[in-house]
Records
---
Amino acid sequence: AVGGSGKTADLTQSEVLVLMCIGYFQPITRAELSSFFGKEISRDFIGHLRGAGLIASGPRSPTPGAPYTYVTTKEFLLEFGLDTLRDLPDFEALEDAGLLSKERLLAGDIPIAIGGVLEEDDEIEGCDLDVRSEVPE
């Protein structure tokens, strides 16, 4: 349930899915996010989420090149009506139901894998989240 100041009503499905991945797998690099979705996550896309205050830079990854990682912020928690990240739906239950698996996602074995570059206004096919609906104030 969305419970924040209403910014989430303006998020695209793609943005919500990327935020979900960051929420569950943080700290995470842009390259790892790209692996999840089967298409490159653009710097502009990440910049948009950072500009909205929903994510921030985390520690540098220990992988070659030491890329930046991304983590969620307090604003992320507020926007999604969470007190802590522990309030996210239980990851193991999602895995058991076959809905989410980091290993499968990183291997590219996801039903929504698509090619190209994910820009901030792109949609991820196969996802029917309605995140742009009116949010009661």
---
Amino acid sequence: MRHQDVDRPELEPGTFLDRYELLSVVARGGMGSVWLARLAGKHGFEKLVAVKTILPYYAADPLFRSMLLDEARIASGIVHPNVAQTIDLGEQDDVLYTVMEWMEGDSLRALLRRFEESGSTLPLGISLRVVADACAGLHAAHEVLGPDGSPAGIVHRDVSPHNILITSGGVSKLIDFGIAKARGRVAEETSPGNIKGKIGYMAPEQAIGAEVDRRADIWGLGATLYHAVAGKPAYGGENQAIALHKLLSHTPAPALDDSVPAPVRAIIAKAMAPEVEARFPTAADMGRAIDDAMRQTRLAPSHADVAAFYAEHMGDAIRKRQRAIEQGLRSAAKRHARDQQSAEESNASVADPSSSVIASSVTVDSENRNRVVFALGIAVFVAIGLIGVIGFRFGSRAREPSASTSPASASAATAATSAPAVAPSLPPSESAPLQSALPATSSGPSAAPVGSRPPRRGPSKPGPRTSKGSDQDVDDGF
């Protein structure tokens, strides 16, 4: 069974990880996935973000957790236009995740692959501008200070075309500090022979597990520029063991074509010098050398030029991604509408249960009162009848043989004969005021306000997974 199938909560569009609503999968790899997500706030505020989720199998590993926490901590301290921003880190229902700024763009590797497929190379000016941006972002990372004000000693250790993102605005950003080295890092490699990074872009000292500093990243920048100019990696395209042997034996990279300007060839040679001391001391120094080369060769494209070039050659990928975003937003709107409708229907069913309760209580009260009045009427009738009989008997004894009667006796007799048999109950119209006089009560539970937020969906329980061939593979960087 694959690791990613072990105890894996099912994430699906509509799942909330804290404040972040997952919309659609952008890329999927062996260790996790990258999602397009939405951060919704008050007063209609919303922002698209990228959420990188890590599989529980890896998130449960102490070393891996430490690596991810280190990455978030390191990356969040780098604030620069040429470095992707890390926004948040969280964990929910065994899902460990990081939140990054959403950037419309593709990796330099994806762009290079387009040209490799056609047997051509990236225009030199575009290559120089992209790598110059990467130099600026990398220098910012190298210069970060720790909490005590001393250098944090950050070394990316995985600088490559895979980890340079070209955005739709033409600005390139350095991404993925998953294996970055920094002072105070919790997760340190202790296993002998444990190599982190990509061999084709790895400095020799890093390949043998020696101590590295920022100049190892300079090598990565030089190897990246070589790939962009030559159309293939300096050490790659073959068995990894062979590539590693060439790297460690200081076998020179294949010579670049004579059409490559001398200043550019000199930059690559200096950046990829086997001796650490012979390389550019800082990424800023390398960036200045590239700027000088662009001026000398009159190849100095602007970010707008890079944006136009990117849109021309990656248009299908851009449109596909835009469709996925629009579909994700439409699906989210439909889910919210369904949730709202369900909430309103639920509210309507329990909105005013008091009316039926009041009506039934009034009916019962009216019936009980009628019974009481009926009983009182019988009692009055019997009492009057007894009085009449007694009075008749006493009157007979005291009566003279005369035919005339006393006025009092006549009045009593008249009263006795005119008394109704049953006292009338209140007519229905007289019971009506009782209903309005009763307090409005409810026997049901109070309902949530109609305008309340739809219930959030958390990750569902593990279940069978299906293959999704449309998802892009992602290099996790771990």
---
Amino acid sequence: MSQSTGSKTSDTAEPFIRRNYLLAIIGNGTLFIAANRLADPATVIPLLLLRLSGVGWTVGLGYAISMLAPPLPGMLAARWLDTAPSKRRVFNWCSVGRFTGAIGVAITVLLAGVYGPQWYRWALVPLLGFFTLRLLAQGVSSPAFVYLLASSVPSTMRGSYWKWRQFTGLGLVLLFSRPLVRFFLSEDGPYQFPTNYGLLLLLASLVMGLSWLLLAFMVEPPGRPAGRQLTWAQHFARGVRLIRRDADYRRLLGAKVLLTAASSMSPFFIVFAVEDWLFPDYVAATFIGVQIVSQLVGSWISGYISDRLGNRKLMITAAAVTLTTAMIAGAGGLLTPEGGITVAGAYVSYRMMVIALCFIGYGLHQSELLPAYQNYMMDIAPRRKLPSYMGFASMFLVPVAVVPLLFGWMGDIISYQSVFFVSGMLSLVGLAIALRMGEPRDDLMDES
């Protein structure tokens, strides 16, 4: 049984705010997921960086920024987020920053198309700058949003929130996002590189802006913030104390760090397919479709496991899926020959099957890891200290930012198969740690 740093508020005693529940599903789910797939971090963004720079390490740099930029502001902001009277107002201002960053990336890519190939590499500087701005704002908005969600939805309904969030969002992706990606990135499409990417990112930023606008109408849940703002010394001392005293918090962080590091292999699935197996760029739309269907199925599985079996078991499932995906990618990359088979009159190459299996695993991983992590965190954290729990936890992801850079170097110098096997080893250790986590919902039910 884990030791707690303070008395925990029973989730079963908290109100269910239907308005927040529905707005979170539509704004943070349906619209945001659809928009995010137009600028998919595992396919569209890696291909854009690869085409602009011509080298694989920029893919690792972009992924490293996506993990490095959010943690620091999240940890620093937790000191005043704990005492902020309105978490919703904080979230709304951060949404403005996120939209500015998203629209800035799109405009940068469009301007690169205007000025020509000699400006492609120079465009990487403002592109990554706006990308970082969006992620810095995200680092502060995420703890605020999780607080609003934790105070509005009880533990036994959070799995359902994730299920409907992903199911509706991915349904919209299948209907609109995937066809749009294929339309813009097709070799015979109406727009040339990089204008096609710029228009795709512009559309994504506009839909993201609509999703954040809807979330601005969430209501502030009942409750009171922490009584006083800690000094910086007290703030950092609290972080050390949380790690030392709460064994479940410590194990959750260990599992999350290792599995996040392992998932750094995901941008290299499409890079490996394009660079080593010479697949065309537009297959990104096919793999997005495979990943979406996998994530749709996974959302129902993760919702069931979270609500009925607990978030510890969901974390274990996520670790097992990540390990299996890494082994398929590594072994398949080494052993899969050319050629294929005919299924229902359609020819399918063996190598296409391997990459499709990788994206199936990645889709299941996406549907499980984040819900397991956030739901488990909401189960173990005292409500008024939840921003601090989230902020300090995010700081442990900072060292993980070097992993995609290392993977990018390994892919260029050694092989992409080596990237996948290293990810498999990280997943194995993460699985071992997840198996040692306790089930906090037992304590919550005892308190109710």
